[in-house]
Write a structure and sequence with these properties.
- It is built from two helices and 16 strands.
- The protein is 9% helix and 37% strand.
- It is mainly beta and 262 residues long.
- A hairpin with an 8-residue loop joins strand 14 (212-215) and strand 15.
- It is globular and about 45 Å long.
- It has helices at residues 10-23, 246-255, and strands at 3-4, 41-43, 62-67, 72-79, 82-85, 91-92, 96-97, 103-107, 116-124, 136-140, 163-174, 177-192, 198-200, 212-215, 224-233, 241-245.
- Strands 11-12-13-16-15-14 form a six-stranded antiparallel β-barrel. Strands 3-4-5-10-9-8 form a six-stranded antiparallel β-barrel. Strands 6-7 form a two-stranded antiparallel ribbon.
- The chain starts with a strand and ends in a 7-residue tail after the last helix.
- The model is unreliable at 6-30 (pLDDT under 50).
- It has two domains: 9-24 and 31-43 and 151-246, Thrombin, subunit H; 59-140, Thrombin, subunit H, CATH 2.40.10.10.
């Protein structure tokens, strides 16, 4: 998971600083990069492999994006044949951008088991490099049936206020917990409506890149994707988690005629 140094525009800084101070004034030590204070991640199930219990939705729609070269990130099914993840997950320092055929999506992965396996036919990503272009849509060779996708939020960032402040969850597979999805349900998301990057204070170490930032929708049992986590910044005076928000992702999809249903 990348770490970036960011400069702050004055308008952004004023809004974020006010929100951060209202949320927390404590400082913490960071033992594992990506953990912000106490580790608030919890496994999404409490039973081990072979328990026979059904794996619940929405966690079925979240899985691992595995690379033939080794390593993984987190991905989310947002349409039957589209998986949302971080663009840097689809690269390798030795060969650069990886070909689609070297990638696999395992929906609902846990302890070596999974609910669906998708091979990759195409990778759609912005032309822009760096954190502002660090998201990608992976098109699968065939739609995944039987697992309802998680929808992109249509409400986040659409209000009259320039500032965005919401309670959210982050779900992801991490370097220290690679075989079971964990979720942090005690975090906040901060941003400025028209910015390409927002911040969050969720716990998300390496491996959780591409993990969905989830926000409650009209149906409390059907969370929406407010964005994806892509890394963390080195500034300690504001939430370190960096995310690409849903409005940026939706605009990218709409420009290509691929926007999933609301």
């Amino acid at each position: 998971m990348p770490t970036w140094a960011f400069s702050r525009r004055p308008a952004i800084g004023a809004i974020l600083a006010a929100l951060v101070l209202s949320a927390s004034s404590a400082t913490h030590a960071y033992d594992l990069p990506g953990i912000q204070g106490a580790d608030d991640r919890r496994p999404v199930i409490s039973t081990g492999p072979g328990s026979g219990k059904a794996y619940p939705w929405p966690w079925q729609a979240i899985g691992r994006v595995n690379r033939n070269t080794g390593g993984f990130c987190t991905g989310t099914l947002i349409a039957p044949d589209l998986v949302l993840t971080a663009a840097h997950c689809l690269e390798n320092t030795r060969v650069g951008r990886l070909p689609p055929e070297s990638l696999h999506f395992l929906a609902g992965y846990r302890f070596g088991d999974y609910d669906a396996h998708g091979r990759v036919a195409e990778i759609l990503r912005p032309d822009q490099d760096g954190p502002r272009g660090d998201f990608a849509l992976v098109r699968l060779t065939a739609p995944i049936a039987g697992i309802p996708p998680l929808r992109l939020s249509t409400a986040i960032g659409t209000g009259r206020s320039a500032g965005v402040h919401a309670r959210v969850w982050l779900a992801g597979y991490s370097q220290d917990r690679p075989h079971l999805l964990a979720v942090d349900k005690s975090c906040i998301m901060l941003g400025v409506r028209d910015d390409a990057l927002w911040r969050h204070d969720c716990d998300g170490p390496k491996g959780s890149s591409g993990g969905p930032i989830l926000v409650s929708g009209e149906d409390p049992d059907a969370p929406r994707v407010a964005g994806i986590s892509i890394g963390f910044a080195d500034r300690l005076d504001m939430p370190q988690g960096v995310m690409v928000p849903a409005p940026v992702i939706r605009a990218f999809l709409e420009a290509r005629g691929l926007a999933p249903p609301n």
